[in-house]
Amino acid sequence: MESKKDNQEPDYTKITTVLLKSRTGEFDVESILFLKLKSLGICDLGCIGECINLERLDLSGNNVTNLTPLASLRLLLVLNVSANRISNIEPLSSCESLQSLNVAGNLIPSTESLLCLKSLKKLESIRLKDNTYNYSNPVCKNSSYRNILLEMFPNIKVLDGERVVGRGSDLYQLCKDIDDTIKAGMYKNGQLPEMPDCKPWVEDGYWEIKRSNNAIVDEAYKQFNDVLHECRLLNNRAAVVISQTERTLET
Question: Is the pTM of this model over 0.90?
Answer without folding.
Answer: no
